[in-house]
Amino acid sequence: QLQLQESGPGLVKPSETLSLTCSVSGGSISSSSYYWGWIRQPPGKGLEWIGNIYYSGSTYYNPSLKSRVTISVDTSKNQFSLTLSSVTAADTAVYYCARRCSSSNCYDYWGQGILVTVSS
Amino acid sequence: QSALTQPASVSGSPGQSITISCTGTSSDVGGYNSVSWYQQHPGKAPKLMISDVSNRPSGVSNRFSGSKSGDTASLTISGLQAEDEADYYCSSYTTSSTWVFGGGTKLTVL
Predict the structure, then answer these.
(1) Identity of the residue in A39, A49, A108 whose CB atom sits nearest the CB atom of B57
(2) pLDDT in tens, B30-74
(3) What is the pLDDT at residue A31?
(4) Spatial separation of the C-alpha atoms in residues A6 and A3, rounded to whole Å
(5) Which residues of A51-70 are buried (b: 16+ CB within 10 A; e: fewer)?
């Protein structure tokens, strides 16, 4: 059974960089069938798509975040990561990693999510 | 890209049917058969309920169905049960090779 697990600091100071890692178990991140993504959800609000990455390293980002976001992949560790620079309180959210469906534009496996609070 | 438009809340009694709408544009919902729906219970991760407008993943109850007309997609839940009470989000692929979500709809089972 595929499992995804987010990890990283739960508290980040304003203007600093948020860094999270998603560890994938029960399947290979190098499978040619899948993209891997990050989605976030501010407290009490809706979902916001952040971006996707393929095992080869090709990426797609939300235009509204593109200037601050980098998603990378480490196939040797079966992990992919998110960095978000120059954070503000508006970046406080639960961050989810997820697997894009193999032949559809959806997300079929999700991590449990990690709350990241931006505060001094 | 703007969020897809969903009603903030819907409600229904057990056994009834409800429909949640999701309105976008020709650049997302109307341009692709790539609308998906997610169920989210409080404190939990979203769960895929419908993909490609109307496909149900294995294990999802056949009480859940999806459809689309023009720039508006819909999720219908028939035979409402107490366990269906949750937030529901639509999502669509877009012409920019990105994804966009709806604002979410809170379903209350009366």
Answers:
(1) A108
(2) 999 999 999 999 999 999 999 999 999 999 999 999 999 999 999
(3) 85
(4) 10
(5) bbbbbeeebbbbeebeeebb
